[in-house]
Amino acid sequence: MSEMKVDIAIIAAVGQNGVIGIENRLPWSLPEDLKNFKALTMGSPMLMGRKTFESLPGLLPGRPHWVVTRNPEWQAVGARAFLSVEAALAAAAEANLEKLFIIGGGEIYTRSLPLVNTLYLTEVSLNPKGDAYFPAFDRSGWQEVARVPQLSAKGVEFSYVEYRRI
User: What residue stretches are annotated with the DHFR domain (predicted)?
Assistant: First the structure.
């Protein structure tokens, strides 16, 4: 029986200065990006850190919530807990998932970046203050396969960019 490879993707909105969050929330309001996030992730499990899970307004419909936590006792209704990124990825492979989205935060992005095949980045033309950052990565190992420039209703320029590992 041939083993199906899971497409492991990171999805993140990133400021020009690498900021992705401040005080456990997004540093900007881009409803257009939230709609794009929903469209891309719908139907696929989302892997996130506990703080990211707790920052959500509630369970996001139509997508399993997988949470990485160091606390083996942690549990939440509607979430599946894992003690490591690697354990979650092993469960994804075992379940023959087609796709798994890693949705943050900074520490989870850093730990999973070497393991992913695809990056869906919303590159935001702002330099906000923040306390959570997307990890720096060697862009020579990635090919940009799509870039769609956008202008938010509030006048913020951003682009949806898809990268594939070379």
Answer: 7-165
